[in-house]
Each structure stands twice: as structure tokens, then as C-alpha cells.
Amino acid sequence: MIYLITYDLNTEGKDYNALYDKIKSLGECFHPLESVWFLQPFHYSDVNTVTEQLRTTMDSNDNIFVVEITDKSRQGWLPKTAWDWLKAHK
Predict the structure, then answer these.
(1) Whose CA is closest to 22, among 57, 46, 48?
(2) What angle do CA 81, 71, 64 make, to 5 degrees?
(3) Considering only CA atoms, which of 64, 89, 87 is closest in space to residue 2?
(4) 29-62, pLDDT tens digit by residue?
(5) Exposure of 67 in the CB half-sphere (CA atoms within 13 A)
(6) Which CATH architecture has domain 2-88?
(7) Please, are residues 85 and 27 in contact by the beta-carbon 8 Å criterion?
(8) Region 68-83: what's the mean pLDDT?
(9) Residue 27: which H helix or E strand, with range?
């Protein structure tokens, strides 16, 4: 399973490194766009668990969206490396 994670950190001057480190600690990941990550968890996790873990590094006024993506119908304009990562982690 692969999750797409997207977020807005709304506190001015917010350091994204804690969030990035938390995402990386959860599994194999790829960062194709400024506020988007793909995550293949090391262990089974549902979207609620992933979201709860990431919220520990975020402020109460920040936003996050986590959704499971599949290899079925998907399309976009991403770097080739993003598509390669998705193909390799089906």
C-alpha cells in the first residue's frame, strides 16, 4: 500500500524538518512536490494511524490529508523519478 500525504503548515516561519523526519521514519518515501509525499509504510498502518503520527509534529492550525493510492487509474504531470518510484513500490 502507498499513501499520498499532503499538508499546509500555516505558522509563519515553520520548520518542516520535524515533519519530514517523521514521514521518513514511517517507511520508504518519495517527495515529488513541495507539500506532497508518497509513503510505503514499514509496517501495516491505516490512514488514521499515519495521520495521528504526523500530527505530533504539527501545530493545531496546520492541515494534513492522507489517502491510500493504488496503481489503478492515476494521471499527472510529475518528474519521471516520481513515476519510477510508484512503479517500483506497487
Answers:
(1) 57
(2) 75
(3) 89
(4) 999 999 999 999 999 889 999 999 999 999 999 9
(5) 6
(6) 2-Layer Sandwich (3.30)
(7) no
(8) 87
(9) strand 27-33
